[in-house]
Fold this sequence. Notes:
Number of helices: 17
Radius of gyration: 31 Å
Low-confidence stretches: 1-11, 77-84, 193-197, 277-290, 506-514, 562-569
Distance between the termini: 28 Å
Helix content: 40-55%
Mean pLDDT: 77
Strand order of the largest sheet: 4-5-7-6-8-10-9
Number of strands: 14
Strand content: 5-15%
Largest sheet: 7 strands, mixed
Amino acid sequence: MGLFSKKKGKTKSFHPTLLHLVLPYLIGITWTCLHPILSVITGELKCRGSYLDESALSSNRFTIPSHDYGFSVLTVDESGGERGTSSLCDVLNTHRFPTEQSSILSSPAIDCLIHPSSSPKTPSLEIVKIIPSSSSIQPSESIVLILTPPPTSSSWTASTFHSCILTLLHRLSTSKTTWLSKIIYVVTTTTSPSSSSTTSIQDTVATYLQAHHGIHHALPLDYSNTMIRTLLVYNISYHSSSSAMTEVQILPQGEYGALPNLDLVFTVNGIMKYYNGYEYQVPRHYTWNVDKMEKFGGKVMGWIATHVGWRKNKVEAYVRDFVGMLSFAGHLAIGPYPPHAQALKYGIDSLTIQSTLPSSSSSSSSSHSSESKMVQQIEQTINTLSYTHERLHHSITQYILPSSTKFVGQSEYIYPMILILIGLVIKAITLAFMDIGRFCFEIGIKVTLCVVGGVSLLMMCFSLDYNDDSYGELIMYGYMYAVVLSLIGCIIPLDNDKNNKREEEKVQSKHWINENWKQSIQFVACIIAIYTHVPMMLSHVSLAYPSALFWCPLLTFPSYGNRLHHSRGGDADETKKTVLLQMKQRMTKIASILILILTWPPVLLVPKVFEVYTMYILLVYTPLHMFLATLWLF
């Protein structure tokens, strides 16, 4: 018994039923829902907690004593003036501390570079370079800190946070900082109080990385001859009220499922908690935009508070972690992405620390204390990362974070993912060795070639920068999709009539004939779904999981081999059955058309879920949707 022929005279073998396809699918979903309270790998009834694989990052490194970074302690050097306080390099060159005889920039361990803009669309960069004074040779590794510039209404000496940063730069450049073992780069953009335009932190990160790697308007050699091991983006914003509390979020998500080493995430989170004051609100989960998930979680928590009385606290904790897990995975799959996502594309472990501080116009001591603590955390992070050598190669790089102290690693979520995908494998094997008597090459290969050709042309068109206009995208995608289905619609009736005539010659004594070509198309669709989702499962589970949840039932649960045609007349009972069958087929056809319209990418997927036509939509979703349309429309 094989894919192309069947041997007669053997007993009927075991045939998987719909239950064998649905059961692992449901078990996989249930297993996923239990992640916040169950860890199969460790055998414990709890989610795995935070830990550090790299011993150099352990918490006993948190030894830097608290230091008052001060505010407005700088004085203007006699050789300088009041000019240029909005420029970091000018401030370092013209200002000094009262205890020093010269400006900050006079130290041989610190230097500053103004990297001019190469075009009106790219910002001008200011880069401060700090060389470890205790090192006899220049280190080959560096840590990059990218900061938002002061508000347009303020300056480096007037903003509390940025004034504390100046104190930090001075401390790192002195000989007392013996623990510093890597070059520190502090990157920001030039600001002008009279300018009304602002540069986004995303543009700053992208411009710096391109210049550092020599892709566009390269940096000088002495500013780009080190290996960037860690890049931290501090995106600082301000509340409108000076009495508001400081909020901090740690954002690890990157594009295409890229994430930093888990050790870096838990290290920064541990430092935040170690120096955490009463002003801070450490987030329950790491997300870029938590508004929608917070509203959903709030409604669920409200319902629990009203209706659930048994172990209410544990139920609330489970809902909170489950919502956090969904939120983390959702933003990892579809964005929007934090500024450091650009660095993850270069293989650099990076994070974005989003902090919202009280109004910068406040002069209260509590406001200054919160900003001083933020800079203290930055110094402690630099101190901790200075003890590591080479890149962080331990720990985990594929994970989902339900909360700030829990994680679900790849070794946990890969098992339910396999259970969801196993239905495709069972269906493909069943079709190949049991259901398909003879693979319909004439239709199967031609339909596959039409789909592959249409997807290839779409990829070619979208690679030519046509995606600047959303309306043009819709026309191009719809036109190509219609062409492919039109070709398939011309191929199937001609080849199917030939197949039916050959089958009728062989089964003149029977009343029904089987549409073998649909099972062949279903087999090809299952194979393509397997080969596209398995790589995603290993590299981008946040996108592979919902995709598998959507496609597995549509491709495996229906049985396309039972749709039959009446070949010649019969008695009244058979006529009645034929009428009922035709009515059922028409209702199914209408429902299928509605589902195909709603799931067609230009209707809901691209404008509502994805902003543009991604590789997933073009290479995975589109061909599977074309195969599904072939099975449902013809």
